[in-house]
Amino acid sequence: MSDSGHVLKVENLDHSFSAPGGDRIQVLRQISFSIDEGEFVAVRGPSGCGKTTLLLTCGAMLQPTSGTVKVAGQHIYSLSGRERIAFRAKQIGYLFQTLELVPYLSLLDNIRIVKGVKPGVAAQWLDRLGLADRADHK
């Protein structure tokens, strides 16, 4: 990992959407922060404040209007769309809160079905996240 040990580094991140009537809605404005390996970070705020936009942008799923996002030293939006998909598949993990989980599978089984997850790794991930005691919960 390069970039002084930062797992995630965000600099001057802006994101805006087009609103009906041609107006622009500024959701993220000049956001800068870094997260180092082993840090635990929570994103909180009221509904509509930009939490999901920030997470999607940091996760290589929503290109920002401006600014940079580096994951493990890689400027993710300098990659082509196809390269970004491959990078995301290997370097970024998302566990969505709702809808994206298979409701009849346990938490552990939902992780196990992810392509490329080796046996035993899913349980290690839950342990690292402090969720090992919920592995069998649906």
Kindly summarize this structure in a few lines.
This protein has helices spanning 51-58, 81-91, 107-112, 121-128, and strands at 6-18, 24-36, 66-71, 74-75.
How would you explain this protein's 3D organization?
By secondary structure, the chain is an alpha+beta fold. The chain has helices at 51-58, 81-91, 107-112, 121-128, and strands spanning 6-18, 24-36, 66-71, 74-75. It has four helices and four strands. It is globular and about 45 Å long.
Provide keyphrases for this structure.
138 residues; alpha+beta
- In N-to-C order, the SSE pattern is EEHEEHHH
What fraction strand? 15-25%
Rg result: 17 Å
> Structural class, please?
alpha+beta
Biggest sheet architecture = 4 strands, antiparallel
**DSSP summary: helix tally:** 4
Q: How many strands in all?
A: 4
Strand order of the largest sheet: 2-1-3-4
Overall 3D geometry?
A: globular
> What does the average pLDDT come to?
86
Write the layout of secondary structure elements.
Blueprint: E1 6-18, E2 24-36, H1 51-58, E3 66-71, E4 74-75, H2 81-91, H3 107-112, H4 121-128
Antiparallel strand pairs: 1-2, 1-3, 3-4
